[in-house]
Fold:
Amino acid sequence: MQAGTSRLNATFAALADPTRRAILARLASGEATVNELADPFAMTQPAISKHLKVLERAGLISRDRDAQRRPSRLEPKRLAEASRWLDRYRKFWEASFARLDTVLEELQPRKARREKPSRR
Structure:
């Protein structure tokens, strides 16, 4: 498996969990400690730490040691990679929908002509 594919797999696996997505959303506003990240959730600090390890292995966050604190911060590079991957499919679907719109617009006048009541 290619390194890029492996990184994408890890990114999407990490993003599959709603708690991890919420943690990322919180880190988008700035770094936070495990205790700060655990506050809004009904889970223990060790449970949050497990989520942080998954996010860290996926490269979505980094963790530093600052005296007794271990603040976590968002690493946007992996999210950007996932966004570029998704963007290719978004462009495909947008082009497909544009073609469908064109076909539907072409069919509309024909349908309107057929539905007009005849005058006698």
